Amino acid sequence: xxxxxQDPAVSVALGQTVxxxxxxxxxxxxxxxxxxxxxxxxxxxxxxxxxxxxxxFPDRFSGSSSGNTASLTITGAQAEDEADYYxxxxxxxxxxxxxxxxxxxTVL
Amino acid sequence: QVQLQExxxxxxxxxxxxxxxxxxxxxxxxxxxxxxxxxxPGKGLEWIGYIYYNGSTNYSPSLxxxxxxxxxxxxxKFSLKLSSVTAADTAMYYCARGPSGSSGEExxxxxxxxTLVTVSS
Lengths: 108, 121
What we know:
Distance between the termini of chain B: 39 Å
Number of strands of chain A: 10
Largest sheet of chain B: 7 strands, mixed
Radius of gyration of chain A: 13 Å
Helix content of chain B: under 10%
Order of helices and strands of chain A: EEEEEEEEEE
Shape of chain B: globular
Largest interface: A-B, 25 and 24 residues
Structural class of chain A: mainly beta
Oligomer: heterodimer
């Protein structure tokens, strides 16, 4: 079992805003990073640190954190954003890396 | 641009040892951590462990008894050995650079394309 948890599935209407969350005690001390994974592809880093995007990634993706919850927000979701999204951080001991179980995003 | 490429057998028999290598191009292993992450078919990502370029390691508690990571800086490669495999070890195995980041940050920016390893007799 993971020490950071995600909702299994979320849906959003095309062009609307969606928030995907990641919860865990370690998130009070560590930032979550976020990855997008499309079928048959390796994960791609979307957000890291406080709210940093790798160069070339759309600015409709943003990250935030409050207490034990980290969030990935997509403002104006596009059809190509339909994918699985994973958060990653440290476990509650701070000694090991953990991934959330993933959230399947459907764009309607 | 850093690129990673996994290689190794795609089929391993139960109870045997799974061995994979990750070749890094476009950059040096030095001063970075290097990880293995796996994903069983239809399931989520699981961190296996990481190795620093100097050879220090950190393993997932759930796999620690069966995992060995090693690094060869002269060849710009690092490797994974997972012993006593069962069908539950069938997964896509990814190598990645990281975790990277300053204090409080943990992220993996560079990933290999992954290699599927099936455990079956």
